[in-house]
Amino acid sequence: AYPKEYYEYQLKGVVIHMGTADSGHYYSIIQDRENLDIPEEKRWIEFNDTVVTPFDIADLPNEAFGGEEKWSMKSMNMTSVREKISNAYLLFYERVDPDVKIPRELSTKEPVTDDNDEEAKKEKEESAKVDDSEEKSAEQTQIEAVSHIDAIYTGVDEENQKYWKNRNIFDREYFEFVYQLLNMCANVPSYSDEELDSLMNEVALQTSQENLSDFCLRFFVTTLIRASDRESHIPKFMKLLKQHFKRDPPFALKFINAMSRPRICKEFFLECSIKDMRRMVVGLVKVAVEVVYPYQVSHMESFVNNFDKMKEPDARQQPILINFINTIISLIQEITDRFAPHTTHFFQLFAICTELGPVVRLYMLKQLAMGRLLDYFYGEASPHNAFFADLSRVDVLPEETVFLGYPLNIKISGIGSLEELAAQKKLRASQEPGQHWSYFWVAISNLVRICRFHKASKQPSPLAIDSKDWTVGEEEDLLLDPGDLFTKQAITSCSTKIAARSMAKILAHMSYENQDFTTKAINAIMEGLRERDWMDSRNFTIPMRQMLLIQDSLTSRTAFIVKKYLELMRESNVYYKITETLIDFLFKITGRHEEVAAVISNCKTEWKWMEKWLEDNEIPSQSITSQRIRFAKPRSGGGGITSGSSSVAAYSRLAKTDNSDRLRRLRLVMRGQFGN
Questions:
Q1: Which of 203, 363, 474, 630 has the maximum number of C-beta atoms within 10 A of its C-beta?
Q2: Contacts of 347 (CB under 8 A, 6+ apart)
Q3: Residue 13 has pLDDT above 60, yes or no
Q4: Apex CA 602: angle with CA 600 and CA 604, to 5°?
């Protein structure tokens, strides 16, 4: 038999459930294992959430054995019996002598007694080896068990520290404390010109020590903007930080230097799925670069002018704003489908940089920033993916220690099922709608408008923003050609006024004194209007209107645009809503542009069909009900009313709509009265 010590265990802990099978609460009773000088029965402790109290082990039967108990209702002067709601759920025992060993003679294998048998002797020797091995294995198991226990203790300790640290850091009083520290730091002394020049150079920056301002900024971008109740604290923090940047330019420069590390920039502007966080950090970047630029511009001009002569640019010798620009350019290739919905604020960084000044725009063109952005936009349809993938001249800073710290390298576990994948995709879709291109086209517009696309013209385009007259390379020029690819993707992506107006400036600038481009661009716009319905028409009419405003030697441009537009209107007149939208736009441009009005006055015969259309559909709801016309263009796969809220709302207003006012205005236009 096994020795008695083998069977002796002592109770060391109990997990108690209080409640029913459907709900309840757990708490624990554990024996203190360290203070052994205290009597054993006095070493029991109850852990109930955050409440820790001594426990009398004599009360354990009443606390954990279940059964029945008497209870009384004094108000009714009665006593009854009910089942106890507290029961032991888990019991933890420990062998009294953990080092007890099983005697060798109790091995499951019976020993062989015939020592004269050679095979028996051999078998006995093998058995002895097995016993020794098992004994060593048991010792090793005990050692491993102790190491596992140490690992558990360490893990629990780390989790506890993390819990209390988070609880204290994400505390409103702590937020207010850091704000007061920042408020103290914001009142910095003024610098002399010499001191400021010294502080704003890279060598001084790299050797500067972290200070209280750095701590407050790091707290803001790593902690506060992640807090659940951040809305009540962030506005005043943001205001104070921006003021601090303006009062202390070296502080702003230090922030941009940290954001010039690809890992940090990628975390905030691509990996971060919280829109508010990206918006707040990009707001800080905007103020910081605007503060830093005047101090760095002369250094940047010298660097950009000599850039083409440099064999191997070195990020450590470059102006910090150049490093920041290189970082965002290098991250274009890091945009994946996962990050695409987050890119609005990433592209805003490009827009911010292109609005700083001529030297920044020129450098970004030298680094093919425009081509790299367009190459990403077109994806696999771009004919020059390999060309723009070359980043050999885009040198970025190494990932060395910076005061903001670095994001954790968290290994993402695989997704267990298609259902989980679908659920995550649905969650992301609910958090933020699809990709927005507003700032993308702002950046492209700012870069396009320092280039001259028609060298024969003596005067620069009125929309040009610099006098650089940069000539784009063949690869970039091809991506700006307004052919089928440009129409279906670029113009259609301009779903906001900001984007549509930026696209309008791009097309108008490139059309200046350029008949070939004008023809292609107008044909592209008309094709887009032909394929899409009234809700998307603004994407195309805004660029068209901008092209009508161009003042150059191409006198036939207005007549060409109006003619194409009238042809398109006639083709679309079987659909009520798009025809109505196109008529209203025509009224608008004839009333505001004299050249358009002059062309229109010579096209009266082409207006006859429009007059008849308005007469036949004076009450549009009746025309649609009788199926003389359709309300909107059919979407792919079916007809009828589109599902968008704008379309449904427009259809619901039809009952109160008539075209008598449009008919009146049309007849005035036909008589040459364009302003009414």
A1: 363
A2: 373, 437, 438, 439, 440, 443
A3: yes
A4: 75
For 675, half-sphere exposure in the C-beta direction (CA atoms, 13 angstrom radius) is 1
Which of 94, 157, 106, 161 lies closest to 131, judged by CA?
A: 106
- The pLDDT of residue 321 is 94
Task: Express each pLDDT in 429-459 by its tens digit.
Answer: 444 444 579 999 999 999 999 988 776 667 8
Tokens of 435: 């990709």
Residue type, 53: T
Tell me the CB-side half-sphere exposure of residue 635, using CA atoms within 13 A. 8
Residue 102 CB neighbour total at 10 angstroms:
13
Measured in degrees and rounded to the nearest 5, phi and psi for residue 468 equal: -75, -30
296-344: pLDDT as tens digits: 999 899 999 999 888 888 888 889 999 999 999 999 999 988 888 889 9
Residue that is written with structure tokens 């009746």 in the block? 622
Q: Are 224 and 233 in contact (CB under 8 A)?
A: yes
The tokens for 74 are 């004094």
| pLDDT given at position 401 | 61
CA distance to 529, 546, 580, 667, per residue, from 567 (Å) = 12, 20, 15, 19
Under a CB-based contact definition with an 8 Å cutoff, are residues 563 and 608 in contact?
no
| pLDDT for position 591 | 82
30 φ, ψ (degrees, to nearest 5)? -130, 140
pLDDT of residue 404: 63
Does pTM top 0.85 for this prediction?
no
Report angle CA 19, 22, 26 to the nearest 5 degrees. 40
Query: Which residues are within 8 A (CB) of 42 and not within 5 positions of it... i.e. 6 or more apart?
Result: 54
Answer for the pair 458, 514: CB distance below 8 angstroms, yes or no. no
Q: In this structure, what token pair is assigned to residue 562?
A: 């109006």
Q: In which element (H, E) is residue 159 found?
A: helix 118-169
pLDDT band at 9 (very low <50, low <70, confident <90, very high): very high
What is the pLDDT at residue 412? 37
For residues 15 and 47, what is the distance between their CA atoms, to the nearest angstrom?
10
Q: What is the DSSP letter of 267?
A: I
Please name the residue that has the structure tokens 């096994």: 2
Report in angstroms the alpha-carbon separations of 264 from 218, 325, 479, 591: 12, 14, 31, 52
Q: How far apart are CA 279 and CA 432, in angstroms?
A: 13
